[in-house]
Design a protein that fits this description.
2 domains, about 35% helix, binds 2-acetamido-2-deoxy-beta-D-glucopyranose
Length: about 350
């Protein structure tokens, strides 16, 4: 992870240097305590830098993030908390470039498929597909904009488990390498990946085509050894969390959202209702929903940023936020595979 940062980030260093000076002025944490937390954080995350200069530059970003976290949590008036995680030495701009990767096609065709869950009547008060054993352990996309592949694979894994009882681990790398209409680590879109899986006659296993967080050429033989199939996919009617609820009651759903804000990057626990807009930058899977003790309704989302982000890789994000598109735009582009 540290290595992948170095190459891509060098472009931004000049810009960042200018803003560090500004931020340093508004810091209230004692330098010694920052230094100590930095060393501890480096050890915890196994972070090693190329040289002393990079270590110092990363310290500045870390300190800035740490101050942001402390100020946010100290205010104590929010339903969620921020915390240090594997991304605490990155600016939000770097983070957005390295860890997201949703790219919508330039023309989105209007939905033509029916919504198969339109008339379901049994919608439980809460749902947790993780507790039901339909979701694999949290994964980490690394420094590759392949969120779309992780979102697609997770949705296929879950519906396969729901229909067959078998929880398989499927290949994100196959989608990264072989979905030519997407752009591998430079981004992609879940429906395009679902289309590839349909045309390919299925998708192979993680073990057969392992993830390595970089672009590669499609290994046709491995790609042909399919272990799971889908026959189609459907879009959830857009901008309607009520319809989304019906779908999530039946299976985990792939969604696009705006994951490019600092509060999202540093989210640690609780029901997120922080800053974000509708810039579709990231993709995740909604794996459940519920209501918090204080009555706030939430969606449970599974991310692909490892275990250190959020609640062991998951986020609770406010549901029925009061805008049709949902918080961070999560109800704008939701879809699910059909088996
Ligand atoms: C929380 O408190 C801070 C600082 O007192 C204030 O600026 C902010 O508006 C408050 N936020 C909410 C959601 O109440
Ligand atoms: C849902 O019900 C409506 C009205 O009865 C019907 O037109 C539609 O085909 C049904 N949709 C599905 C997916 O069953
Ligand atoms: C990653 O895996 C793909 C597919 O197996 C391969 O083409 C590519 O060369 C690998 N890249 C690295 C850096 O190992």
């Amino acid at each position: 992870m540290a290595l992948s940062l170095v190459g891509k980030s060098s472009l931004c260093l000049v810009l960042m240097l200018a803003s560090w000076a500004l931020h340093a002025a508004s810091r209230t944490l004692p330098e010694a305590s920052i230094q100590q937390k930095y060393e501890q954080w480096m050890a915890e995350h196994g972070r090693v830098y190329a040289d002393g200069e990079e270590k110092q530059q990363r310290l500045e970003i870390f300190a800035d993030n740490l101050q942001f976290i402390e100020d946010f949590n100290r205010a104590g008036n929010r339903t969620f908390k921020l915390g240090l995680n594997a991304f605490s030495d990155q600016t939000v701009e770097e983070f957005l470039e390295l860890s997201t990767g949703l790219v919508l096609p330039s023309t989105l065709h209007p939905r033509t498929t029916p919504f198969m869950y339109a008339n379901i009547t049994h919608i439980p008060d809460s749902m947790d597909w993780v507790a039901k054993g339909a979701v694999n352990a949290i994964k980490d996309q690394g420094g590759c904009g392949s969120c779309w592949a992780f979102s697609s694979v997770a949705a296929i894994e879950s519906i396969t488990q729901i229909k067959t009882g078998k929880l398989l681990e499927l290949s994100e790398q196959q989608l990264v390498d072989c979905t030519v209409e997407n752009s591998g680590c430079d981004g992609g879109w879940m429906n395009t990946a679902f289309n590839y899986v349909i045309k390919n006659g299925g998708i192979t296993s993680e073990a057969n085509y392992p993830y390595n967080a970089s672009d590669g050429t499609c290994h046709a033989h491995a790609a042909s050894m399919t272990v799971a199939k889908i026959v189609g996919y459907e879009d959830v009617p857009a901008n309607n969390e009520g319809e989304l609820l019906k779908a999530v009651a039946m299976q985990p759903v792939s969604v696009a959202l705006d994951g490019g804000e600092r509060e999202f990057q540093l989210y640690s626990s609780g029901v997120f209702n922080g800053n974000c807009g509708k810039a579709m930058s990231h993709a995740v899977v909604i794996v459940g929903y519920g209501t918090a003790e204080d009555g706030t309704k939430y969606w449970k989302i599974r991310n692909s940023w490892g275990h250190t982000w959020g609640e062991a890789g998951y986020m609770k994000i406010q549901r029925d936020y009061g805008q049709p598109e949902g918080l961070c735009g999560l109800a704008m582009h939701a879809s699910y595979p059909v088996v």
